[in-house]
Amino acid sequence: MAKLHGDPNFRVLTAPQQPAPGKFRNIVYDLQLVRRLQGQEGDVVGEEEPATPKKIFQLLNQTIEALSSVPSPELALRLYLQCAEAANDCDIEPVAYEFFTQAFILYEEEIADSKAQVTAIHLIIGTLQRMNVFGVENRDTLTHKATGYSAKLLKKPDQCRAVYACSHLFWVDDQDGIKDGERVMLCLKRALRIANAAQQMATVARGSSGPVILFVEILNKYIYFFEKGNSQVTSSAIQGLIELITSEMQSESTTPDPPSDAFFASTMRYIQFQKQKGGAMGEKYDSIKA
Q1: Are residues 149 and 208 in the same domain?
Q2: pLDDT of residue 33
């Protein structure tokens, strides 16, 4: 039997009405409590009704909804995602999906500031990457929404970084079955197109291309998935991106950017190191000219 009835934080959960401060400060404790209950059997001692994870999640949902009257949409979104992770840990897919749905609704309707949107979408992507409770249909729906919103951010660089971050939604090492190399490559190619568009916009606006930092960041994603064994990311694709970056850096219209240059040089040193290391990984890199 779970002996939680004497805990004042637990009474906050079961109380019908609480002032706002009392509600909000106990949410973190509630998330810890729901994980504890998941591993216990029986009713809570001294309570008329058993405290179950589902009931606590219902109370949490009501509490987070109250944040809309403050208003604190960014905080509410973070809490929805934390609750989704807790539901994931309790293996309750419908509840986890509902919290994600509420997070997306909040993102669509309440978060208008462009910087807040960037932060929010990366929180969504990162949380979704850690989820393993979803079936194929629900996960596809959520990843489709995440990639769609990523490509609609206000600034091209933000779009690019969010889209290539979405590639990790389709290749998760510790989850069986989530290794979709084709969709990973689609994300990376889309990010590359956005980076190209950002360069063109910089040329139109300033008469010179912007720094190549986005291309170098994407190159590092190519290398990551190449080493993970994604057959869609080939040595020739990496070579082509290296040549593109080199060409952009040598162009007279490109704005000098020492951090970008240093990042690219470091990436080339890494490739050279892998080539010289030998073994299976050395063979993979053998055809790449660094």
Answers
A1: no
A2: 54
Of 98, 126, 154, which residue sits at a domain end?
154
Look at the alpha carbons of 140, 146, 150, 154 in this order and tell me if their dihedral is positive or negative.
Answer: positive
The pLDDT of residue 102: 94
Q: How far apart are CA 40 and CA 4, in angstroms?
A: 11
Angstrom distance (rounded) from CA 213 to CA 6:
56
The structure tokens 């949380």 sit at: 127
Return the sign of the alpha-carbon dihedral for residues 172, 176, 181, 183.
Answer: negative
* Rounded-to-integer distance, Cα 288 and Cα 253, Å: 27
Of the candidates 59, 148, 53, the residue with the CA atom closest to the CA atom of residue 93: 53
Q: Is 37 helix (H, G, I), strand (E, B) or coil?
A: helix
Q: How far apart are CA 15 and CA 32, in angstroms?
A: 18
Residue 51 φ then ψ, to 5°:
-85, 115
Domain annotation covers residue 162 = no
Do 181 and 232 contact (CB within 8 A), yes or no? yes
Task: Give the CATH number for residue 206.
Answer: 1.25.40.660
1 with 115, same domain?
yes
Tell me the C-alpha distance between 100 and 253, whole Å: 44
Q: What is the pTM of this model?
A: 0.81
Predicted confidence (pLDDT) per residue in 210-247, tens digit:
779 999 999 999 999 999 999 999 999 999 999 999 99
Instruction: Give the 3-state secondary structure of residue 46.
Output: coil
Do 275 and 217 have their domain in common?
yes
Whether the pLDDT of residue 149 is over 70: the answer is yes
Q: Are residues 8 and 145 in the same domain?
A: yes
d(CA 77, CA 110): 10
Q: Which two tokens stand for residue 108?
A: 């669509």
Residue the block writes with tokens 């999640």? 57
- Whether 24 has a pLDDT exceeding 60, the answer reads no
Q: Which structural domain, as residue segments, surrounds residue 244?
A: 172-290
The answer to whether 61 and 27 are in contact (CB under 8 A) is no
